[in-house]
Amino acid sequence: MTDFQDRDDRDASALPRRTAARTAKLASLPLGIAGRAVGGWGRRLTGQSAKDVNAALSAKAAEQLFEVLGTLKGGAMKFGQTLSVFEAAVPDEMAAPYRDALTRLQSAAPPMSGKQAQRVLAEQLGRSWRDRFREFDDEPTAAASIGQVHRGVWHDGRQVAVKVQYPGADEALRSDLRQLQRFSRLFQALLPGTEVKPLLAELAARMDEELDYRGEAESQRAFAKAFAGDEHVLIPKVIASAPKALVTEWVSGTPLSKIISGGDTATRNEVGALLAEFHYSSPARVGLLHSDPHPGNFLLVEDGRLAVIDFGAVARLPHGIPHHLGEMTRLALDGRSEELMQLLREAGFVRPGTELEAEDVLAYLAPFTQPLATERFHFTRKWMQQQAMRVGDTRGRDFRIGRSLNLPPEYLMIHRVTAGSTGILCQLGAEIPVRAIVEKWQPGFTEEDD
Question: How far separated are the first and last CA of the chain, in Å rounded?
């Protein structure tokens, strides 16, 4: 037995379960940020430059963000992982420390002890669970928001990944999301241009799906069947599942986080195109949309395929992406403001009685269609920052228009996942033929679809 396995079950790495303790840790984030801001004003008064002071404050806030959200796991870490794909929208002068801290949240968290993991597996797979494996590594290979992954060899010789849910994850997830919603306005300042409050509301609404690994297994089986034999995408097959344990085929590859930080241009472009194809094609091919787009869930395998893991969050789209969405995108791209406005009203994006000028709405939406205006588009952090600043400027027209528009519930998840996938493309700096991909998979985008 290793030192890791021999540690007492009360080890500090275990998931903190007491609500009061978790609340105090979460409360320390906004309080710490506010306290450092006050200290920063004092240092400016003593002659230090605003730039130097802001850089120091950002670095400390980012380190605290990782330490608190990462250590708590549960909803706190899930929130941090979801935020991580939007760091491309943060202005460069303050982004670097957050980029590092949030990227670490994508695939790392303090693990639970070996004894705890074994206890969960015995409860979920039966007392003789070890007999189902030729080998099982008690030390986890990865630890994330509500569970950790162990490597093993199934009884038939297949290499497998074993996902084990943390004891108390359900209690921690619910508690964290309640507390984070209380602090949503303060967290908004960390990532300007990101809608924190509805993001937290969506995470809370999908909590039960995340916690039930049987539902995740069902979704993963559907994706694996639809993409079986695909030349570009690899979905590991499910081998066994239980409410709090999941066994799937093991896949090895280069995490997207490494490609983002050090990949060459050709690899970035290749991965970006694969990611976009997977995102836009899944609703048509599977009737589902993978709804947890952060780099920790994607790997580039040796044969050039994009491996996709973690299907705990999916949007059910049995009829694919709505036809109206493709039509609206095309009308905005073509500058047909009156037709666009009429369709927006019909589809519920403009509430009855709301008075808006068609040209103003077009001016708000058209920049989002810019990637589709040319054969290839170069997704960059600068472009995403411009969009975030444009719609997040409370003094600007676009902010007012954006607040006047309505996002129907059936479009909420599609919007958030598309924004997250776009964030990864901007992190990659990928230049890809996204228009051709959208033309192929998005109903309503081409005139022929009408």
Answer: 65
SS3 category, 431: strand
Range of the domain at 84: 3-109+170-207
Q: Are residues 263 and 176 in the same domain?
A: no
* Locus of tokens 């009829």: 319
Q: Please name every residue paired with 246 in a beta bridge, in sequence order, or none if there are none.
A: 163, 241
Residue 105 has pLDDT above 60, yes or no: no
Question: CA 163, CA 151: separation in Å to the nearest integer?
Answer: 9
Helix (H) or strand (E) holding 384: helix 381-392
DSSP codes of every residue in 55-101: HHHHHHHHHHHHHHHHHH-HHHHHHHHHHHTTGGGS-HHHHHHHHHH
Q: How many CA atoms lie within 13 A of 440 on its CB side?
A: 13
Collapsing DSSP to helix, strand or coil, 120 comes out as helix
The Cα angle at residue 77 between residues 37 and 288, in degrees rounded to 5: 130
pTM: 0.76
CA dihedral of 430, 311, 420, 442, whole degrees rounded to 10: 80
Interacting residues of 403 by C-beta distance below 8 A, sequence separation 6+: none
Q: How many domains does the chain have?
A: 3
Give the Cβ contact number of residue 191 at 10 Å: 21
CA-closest candidate to residue 423, choices 109, 193, 169: 193
Between 28 and 200, name the one with better pLDDT: 200
Residue 191 shares a structural domain with residue 216? no
Whether the CB-CB separation of 306 and 299 falls below 8 Å is answered with yes
Query: Looking at the structure, do residues 92 and 228 belong to the same domain, yes or no?
Result: no
Alpha-carbon distances of 166 from 92, 124, 172, 252, 403, rounded to whole Å: 36, 12, 10, 24, 39
Over the stretch 293-324, which tens digit does the pLDDT of each residue have? Answer: 888 899 999 999 999 998 988 999 999 999 99
